Amino acid sequence: MKTEEYNLNISDHQFKVKGYWLDQVADFGRKVDYPVVVICPGGGFTFHSEREEEPLALRFSSFAMHVVVLEYNLIGKKPVYPLALQEMAKTIDWLTKLPESMHIDKSKIILAGFSAGGHIVAAYNGIGTDEKLREKYQIDRYSGQHAATILGYPVTDMTVKGSFPEDEQTLKKISPDKTLWKTQDLLNKKSKPTFIWLTRTDELVNVTNSLTYANRLAQLNVPTELHMYESGIHGLALATYVTKKPGKNKYLNRRAAGWIDLVMSWLEMMDLVL
């Protein structure tokens, strides 16, 4: 495996992505193009959680998938949106234009978002598949399309009371555009198949987020799989020792740790694996 950081540009704005590229295996007897997962880690739009970056990248890589981690726009001088959408579109465009020597199956670009990063993926699954919205948010200049999305304990509706974000000031720093507050309202019949997992006792992101989003996908007849574990805190990541915070056993959850195997069996059913 090779890892490399890249600086991508949108006009005068620069952002980083990190690629985890699988090597070719001589024993296969031929060259292989691998699917690629684009990860948007969580962090409340104030940082990028490293627990949801390399540990997840290496786990997906073990299933014969390239991985790219997107260091998307955070709360700062400018709102998170619409720049974060443009960063995602640019990343997909960049992937589709990489040389054949990178051995990417460009028909199998999968977006994976966790917590706040899940909001970006959830929103993009609506906006990126709607011609009018692509034009509105200035992503119609970019080529390429994702094939599916994976959402882990995602923020999908920022208006849910008692859930992140908890104050209107933060909400407006994320997006002054109310259209982006409820990602379920952005979905359409061309939105891509989606896998969602969460825990019922998530103390930060109310389960209403995932349930409402999944319900809307089902209404649109978009292939959807939803797994809600009975217990577990927010931000479990892999829910194993690899992503456990030191001395905090609450980040271990044997049942929820099975989410990634469920994801892979679902991707296999969707014909999105090697």
Automatic annotation (TrEMBL):
GO molecular-function annotation terms?
A: hydrolase activity
Q: Which domain of life is it from?
A: Bacteria
Q: What is this protein called?
A: Putative lipase esterase (Putative)
Q: Which organism is it from?
A: Companilactobacillus nantensis DSM 16982
Q: Where is the BD-FAE-like domain?
A: 30-216
- Which keywords accompany this UniProt record? Hydrolase
Q: Could you tell me which InterPro entries the record lists for this protein?
A: AB_hydrolase_fold, BD-FAE-like_dom, GDXG_lipolytic_enzyme
Q: Which Pfam families match?
A: BD-FAE
